[in-house]
């Protein structure tokens, strides 16, 4: 393994380009573009204010920088460094900005969610979408980039509008059977849209592309409900994490019928995998094993309880989860056998985990200077060489899976794995 030098960073704003050739990072109001292989600076851009959000276009030719406090988005071109674009929302303000799938339109959400403005970089035309709902995940694009779903709130009722991304024409508009819609997400195949309700109402609905309700699932009533949702890469499975510390695992078929399995988290049992060690190592424990369990504060909003993180492996074989009541453990489930495969218990609380985009290899960080890698062949703890304290709070895989960006609050370091593989013991 090789490690780069430490680069300054602001606000955890470090992103690989989709084509894997460049790394973008921000330091205050400066945007720095580096070559991934050499880490030499290719471009240095200066924005009008401190950058709060960055996003690459799908073809890696443009990058947007959002400055929400100023209500401004600036767009930069890698092919033509002298070209730039500034979008000023003025008195309407700005709370969110993102690219359309074609990489030539930018969608800005104004303050108080009064509207979504669609700006075209090619024709300079402007389109407006009214009544967007203020929720956690209110805009969703199909993976092929053909359609966009927008959650809306009109006359105290929830709706979803489907748009054709090529011309922004309305395709479908339908109401949803939700009390207070909280999020929407397309299946990777773009055929089914999942819509889920507020945490106060356990309900998830599956809609077809033409707006037909295919299925409704409601596990229970009168208690905190859904906390996280994740589609499998094959679009066959849907995992639902809830506040009752359980996962609902649904197999979505072509017909409206739905089969359900429930995964519960036994607080005193765990399995263990083969391990390797570098400077620190995993110990294999025999069941039963006791975990550190945090009792949530009952009289505060957003209690730290339930399934807060869900992620499928790219081969559709494993599901990684974190139960916020047991923040030091990552639970990895075997999807083919529908049972627990392994539990990784760390000394510190899990800050982030992410699957390698090319193979079933999971990277975990816990706010210290180590990266933990797991695959079905084993686990390894990697000490990141650095002077002083390097608290890794987030990480991001390169599209090839050969390296990753390790992010702390004010710095980033690149870890190149090369041909590193696990050797089973």
Q: Can you walk me through this structure?
A:
The chain has 425 residues and is an all-beta fold. 0% of the residues lie in helices and 47% in strands. The protein is built from no helices and 37 strands. The strands form nine sheets. Strands 1, 2, 35, 36 and 37 form a five-stranded antiparallel beta sheet that branches. Strands 3-4-5-6 form a four-stranded antiparallel beta sheet, with no helix packed on it. β11 (96-99) and β12 form a beta hairpin. The radius of gyration is 22 Å and the shape is globular. The model is unreliable at 254-260 and 267-278 (pLDDT under 50).
The number of E-state strands comes to 37
What integer is the average pLDDT? 91
What form results from the Cα inertia axes? globular
Strand content: over 45%
The helix content is: under 10%
Instruction: Quote the distance from N terminus to C terminus.
Output: 20 Å
How many individual helices? Answer: 0
Largest sheet: 5 strands, antiparallel
Radius of gyration, whole Å: 22 Å
Low-pLDDT stretches: 254-260, 267-278
SS-derived structural category = mainly beta
Task: Give me the secondary-structure topology.
Blueprint: E1 2-3, E2 7-8, E3 14-16, E4 22-27, E5 30-35, E6 41-46, E7 53-56, E8 62-67, E9 72-77, E10 84-88, E11 96-99, E12 105-109, E13 115-120, E14 126-130, E15 139-141, E16 147-154, E17 157-164, E18 169-175, E19 183-186, E20 192-196, E21 204-208, E22 213-217, E23 226-231, E24 237-242, E25 246-252, E26 258-264, E27 307-312, E28 318-323, E29 329-334, E30 339-345, E31 352-355, E32 362-365, E33 370-375, E34 378-383, E35 394-397, E36 403-408, E37 411-416
Antiparallel strand pairs: 1-37, 2-37, 3-4, 4-5, 5-6, 7-8, 8-9, 9-10, 11-12, 12-13, 13-14, 15-16, 16-17, 17-18, 19-20, 20-21, 21-22, 23-24, 24-25, 25-26, 27-28, 28-29, 29-30, 31-32, 32-33, 33-34, 35-36, 36-37
């Amino acid at each position: 393994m090789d490690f780069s030098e430490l680069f300054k960073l602001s606000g955890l704003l470090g992103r690989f380009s989709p084509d894997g050739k460049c790394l973008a990072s921000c330091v205050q109001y400066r945007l720095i573009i580096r070559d991934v292989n050499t880490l030499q600076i290719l471009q240095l851009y200066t924005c009008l204010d401190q950058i709060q959000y960055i996003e690459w276009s799908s073809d890696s030719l443009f990058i947007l920088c959002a400055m929400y406090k100023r209500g401004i988005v600036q767009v930069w071109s890698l092919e033509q460094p002298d070209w730039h674009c500034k979008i000023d929302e003025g008195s309407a303000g700005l709370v969110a900005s993102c690219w359309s799938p074609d990489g030539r339109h930018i969608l800005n959400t104004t303050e108080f969610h009064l509207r979504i403005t669609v700006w075209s970089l090619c024709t300079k035309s402007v389109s407006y979408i009214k009544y967007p709902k203020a929720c956690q995940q209110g805009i969703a694009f199909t993976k092929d980039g053909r359609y966009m779903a927008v959650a809306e709130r009109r006359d105290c009722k929830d709706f979803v509008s489907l748009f054709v991304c090529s011309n922004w024409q309305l395709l479908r508009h339908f109401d949803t059977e939700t009390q207070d819609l909280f999020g929407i997400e397309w299946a990777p195949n773009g055929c089914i849209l999942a819509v889920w309700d507020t945490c106060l109402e356990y309900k998830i609905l599956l809609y077809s592309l033409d707006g037909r309700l295919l299925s409704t699932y409601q596990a229970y009533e009168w208690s905190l409900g859904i906390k996280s949702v994740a589609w499998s890469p094959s679009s066959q499975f849907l995992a639902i994490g809830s506040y009752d510390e359980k996962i609902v695992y649904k197999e979505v078929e072509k017909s409206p019928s739905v089969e359900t399995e429930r995964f519960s988290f036994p607080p005193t049992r765990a399995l263990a995998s083969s391990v390797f060690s570098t400077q620190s190592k995993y110990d294999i424990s025999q069941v039963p094993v006791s975990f550190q369990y945090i009792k949530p504060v009952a009289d505060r909003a957003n209690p730290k309880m339930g399934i807060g993180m869900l992620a499928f492996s790219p081969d559709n074989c494993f599901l990684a989860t974190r139960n916020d009541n047991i923040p030091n453990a990552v639970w990895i489930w075997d999807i083919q056998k529908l049972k627990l495969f392994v539990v990784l218990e760390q000394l510190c609380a899990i800050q982030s985990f992410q699957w390698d985009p090319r193979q079933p290899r999971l990277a975990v960080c816990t706010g210290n200077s180590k990266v933990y890698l797991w695959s079905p062949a084993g686990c390894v703890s990697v000490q990141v060489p650095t002077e002083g304290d390097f608290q890794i709070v987030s990480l991001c895989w390169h599209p090839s899976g050969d390296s990753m960006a390790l992010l702390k609050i004010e710095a980033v370091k690149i870890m190149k794995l090369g041909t590193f593989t696990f050797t089973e013991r």
